[in-house]
Design goal:
Layout: H1 2-27, H2 40-45, H3 61-82
């Protein structure tokens, strides 16, 4: 069971990387017109920490991308800590 949970954590990490690259590629308009809904997947993967982004004033793209990245890193670290093997000390 633990092996299956570790696979889920790795898939979550890959989805986070894909969502952040999609956000940077389409959100900032690297190859043409920017997409205003490019961050939906990244915001959903960074929940519940990304709910605080509404309180950030203005349109600071890099600050919000950094906050989403930190939120994903927190979620990934919590999930990997919960799925690690616990050794008993006698």
């Amino acid at each position: 069971m633990r092996f299956l949970l570790r696979i889920v954590v790795v898939i979550y990490g890959l989805c986070c990387i894909a969502a952040l690259s999609w956000l940077m590629w389409r959100g900032s308009g690297w190859f043409g017109v920017s997409d205003p809904l490019a961050g939906v997947y990244a915001i959903a993967l960074g929940m519940p920490w990304t709910l605080w982004l509404d309180r950030v004033p203005g349109n600071f793209f890099l600050v919000k991308v950094l906050a989403i990245t930190v939120a994903m890193a927190i979620n990934y670290s919590v999930a990997s800590l919960l799925t690690r093997r616990r050794y008993r000390r006698w």
